[in-house]
Amino acid sequence: xxKNVAILASGSGSNAENIIxxxxxxxxxxxxxxxxxxxxxxxxxxxxxxxxxxxxxxxSCTFKKSDFENGKVLEFLKEQQIDFIILxxxxxxxxxxxxxxxxNKIINIHPALLPKFGGKGMYGSHVHEAVVxxxxxxxxxxxxxxxxxxxxxxxxxxxxxxxxxxxxxxxVAEKVHALEYEFFPKVxxxxxxxxxxxxxxxxRNKRSFISSVFLIKCYFLSGRKDIRLKLKYKKLSKFFRKxxxxxxxxxxxxxxxxxxxYIFVNKL
Length: 268
Known about the structure:
alpha/beta, Rossmann fold, seven-stranded mixed sheet, 10 helices, 7 strands, about 15% strand, globular
């Protein structure tokens, strides 16, 4: 099941490059969980991420802030059939239209241990300077889903590094970058796998529901004795017990109502 992932970046794009290379190097030609990166989107035309994209053979484009807000970017992502969005040093606030179109499908990385040192204006060197000024003993990374507020989405993963009394902001940045390069691609891969499994489970639930309704309708509509004998109550009950854990609760509630109705109508 192929997944198209868009990366949004505002700066150098080192994380974007690291993510793409990770998936290319770990790609299994026999694996149906292929991850593709059709495009890198930036809000800065002169960002070095465009040069990285060119070197990687990935398309890149630039949109103004207003394009994100008026839905132009969303329309573009839909045209590209994007399933998932990764923020890799993207400095604009994600607009509501993208959040609604991609619920729990937009992931960001923050260079500190949230909820500390998060919020508007806390990015890049500003974060590391604040960590050193506060004399923190540790820092790290936080990978989280994106919501309507800066750095307040559900936390997916955190990793820590030690901050020594002699460390400068640049020293902390180097340690944090090492964590970003090591863990960000791996966590993205895990989340994409969960996304794939959720899609498959929904498909299975739908098939189970359709099969169940079909069985009940066969019993209800059939006047043939041999078919009615094959679809007696015990067989239906056995089917429901066997498939209960696979059936979405909402579907199951509807099935129970149908079954009760047909029991009384047909006097099983």
